[in-house]
Amino acid sequence: MRPRNRRVMAKQYVLFLGLFAVAFFGGAGTVAQDETNSIHVDVVLVQLNVAVTDRKGNYISGLRPEDFAIYEDNIPEKTATFEEGNEPTRRLINVGHGPEAEEAAKTDDTKASNISTIGPTAFSGGANVFILFDTSNYMYRGFVFAQDAIADFVRSLVGVNQVALYSYSRNLSRVSTLTPDRNQILRSVRSTVAGDDAALYNSLLLTVKDAAQLTGRKAIVVFSNGPDNASLVPPEDVAELAQSTGTIIYMISTRQAEEEPVSTAVFERMSKATGGKAYFSKDWKDEKQAFMSIRDDLAHLYSLSYYPASNPNRGWRSIKVKLVGKDLQKYRIRTRDGYRLLKQSQVPSMSNPAPGPESASK
Predict the structure, then answer these.
(1) Could you please report the per-residue DSSP string of 71-108?
(2) 253, burial (CB in 10 Å: exposed 0-12, middle 13-18, buried 19+)
(3) What pLDDT was estimated at residue 8?
(4) Which residues contact 312 (CB under 8 A, 6 or more apart)?
């Protein structure tokens, strides 16, 4: 890369981190940013996606709202909505604590911690899924097999509202934005081509920001064939934004990335923090199996939400979900472990650091 381009990228990233810190840590001033490049977040309703399994990894179905206990900073919370798998969302009578929650329950325009609103669209079942496909030069080998695995995954999705296909190498390409048309996604998969270096974390941050603006369940499925070698964004920033906006991240990686210990640890840590999972496949058959495992996970998640009780903590809030009753203690729970309070803040949009033909949205 030319020295001048590197200096421009470094300046962009320093500016981005400064704005990012103001958004997350509650600076006294406001960030001057165009409305189209910001996300306004009012934490009123917190949504959780919860997987319940036995020790063998089998999903446990048929649980009821009263089987779950939610704690935020060790403060008991009351469940406001409940959904199992692809069933319609149930709005419970007891919606929360205090006057703020009571007022929120009466209105249809309250913003939530995952940028959703209380209204008809917020209580519809199903998920929105973003597929982030590694089309860097790591993918020259087996590129067609990777396309096949993604295509099979798209065909198999049940109970998913919309699917988007993004690809990345040095820049992010929104190959196909969210659509219910699976054939459009399949055509988009076949149109992808292998490219330059891999800026995974830059691209994943932009994908999280797109997903954060949606109501209800949303998940990002990352297909990576190698480590990140071109990003300016640290993975910790990506993970924290995903946690705070209720976005699940699933990571699927092939052997080449697994052989890089740093990437392995980051992929596992990031997916776990958001309530997702990381998969490391030895061959392309294992890759397809990983996609099918994610499909099953999405179909079996419990979705719970709550209005936070009065809490003076304005920063990071921990979340714990437990099962109630002796008969349920043997089961395991997987969900995000917390979020940062983003009240009336702006999360700035980061432009692709090196604009080129790939970076254009389609």
Answers:
(1) EETTEEE-EEEEEETTSPPEEPS---SHHHHHHHHH-S
(2) buried
(3) 41
(4) none
Q: Which two tokens stand for residue 181?
A: 């048309």
Contacts of 5 (CB under 8 A, 6+ apart): 354
DSSP 312: -
Burial class (CB in 10 A: 0-12, 13-18, 19+), 295: buried
117 DSSP 8-state letter: B
45 vs 115: CA distance, rounded Å: 9
Q: What is the DSSP code (8-state) at residue 276?
A: -
pLDDT digits (tens, 9 = 90+) for 164-205: 999 999 999 999 999 999 999 999 999 998 888 999 999 999
Residue written as token pair 């976005």: 247
Residues 22, 42: Cα–Cα separation, whole Å = 15
Domain 1-362 has what CATH class? alpha beta
Q: CB atoms < 10 A from the CB of 13, how many?
A: 18
Q: Where are the alpha helices (DSSP H) in 192-334?
A: 200-212, 235-244, 255-258, 261-274, 284-300
Phi and psi at 200, nearest 5°, equal -65, -50
Alpha-carbon distance of 66 to 304, in angstroms, equals 11
Q: Which residues have CB under 8 Å from 94's CB, separation 6+?
A: 78, 79, 80
Residues 6 or more apart whose Cβ sits within 8 Å of residue 204:
132, 168, 220, 222, 238, 249
Q: How many residues does the chain have?
A: 362
For the stretch 241-268, pLDDT in tens is 999 999 999 999 876 656 677 888 999 9
